[in-house]
Design brief:
- The protein has 67 residues and is α+β, with helices and mostly antiparallel strands.
- The chain is 48% helix and 12% strand.
- A two-stranded antiparallel sheet has the order 1-2.
- The chain binds zinc ion.
- The site of zinc ion has 8 residues, from helix 1 and helix 3.
Length: 67
């Protein structure tokens, strides 16, 4: 069972109720990463949205480099 508090906020000493289960390393369709419990963390909505936005920006950069 994952902890009920946001892990990112916990690093800053805050206790915020987590609402999302996040993949530490984006799985990008990789099944072993998707099911790896070591790769899961609880996040609150704000931290999850921020991380998702960063990962999407990285994806866009990667797509540009591939061209
Ligand atoms: Zn948080």
């Amino acid at each position: 069972m994952l902890e009920p508090w946001c892990r990112e906020c916990a690093k800053r000493g805050l206790r915020v109720r987590a609402v999302a289960v996040d993949h530490v390393v984006p799985h990008r369709g990789n099944w072993s990463k998707f099911v790896d419990r070591q790769n899961l963390q609880s996040l609150c909505e704000r931290c999850h949205n921020r991380k998702t936005a960063i990962e999407m920006a990285e994806d866009r950069r990667r797509l540009r480099l591939r061209r």
